[in-house]
Amino acid sequence: MSKAATQISSQVQQEIQAIQLRSADAPAITINPDRLAGAPVIGLSRVPVAALLDYLACGDTLNDFLRDFPSVDRDNVIKALDAIKEAVETELSE
């Protein structure tokens, strides 16, 4: 790998780590009209909650999802699933 490619790869890894740190303190699910047309996303990522639910509905594992979406980490996905569970329980109890 060339020196320039190594430097770019390092910069990308640093950016991914910075996003993960910011996401750790973010709400489990966020909605921002300027991000993915307002679709609910996991934390501060650009990964739609619908993508997570689609993976799980198709029988894919959480590890499959995390492998395919490296910009989110396990803790944020678990927080999002907990938030979904709580929202469903609240909706059904009303």
How are the SSEs ordered, and which strands pair?
Blueprint: H1 3-24, E1 29-30, E2 41-42, H2 49-57, H3 62-68, H4 74-93
Antiparallel strand pairs: 1-2
Tally of strands = 2
Q: Bin the strand percentage.
A: under 5%
Query: With helices defined by DSSP (H or I, 4 residues minimum), what is the helix count?
Result: 4
Morphology call = elongated
Flag low-confidence runs. Answer: none
* Helical residues, percent: 55-70%
* CATH top level label: Mainly Alpha
Write out the strand line-up for the largest beta sheet, numbering strands in chain order.
Answer: 1-2
Q: What distance lies between the first and last C-alpha atoms, to the nearest angstrom?
A: 58 Å
Domains (count): 1
Q: Supply the CATH superfamily name.
A: Winged helix-like DNA-binding domain superfamily/Winged helix DNA-binding domain
| SS content category | mainly alpha
Whole-number mean pLDDT: 86
C-alpha-based Rg, rounded: 15 Å
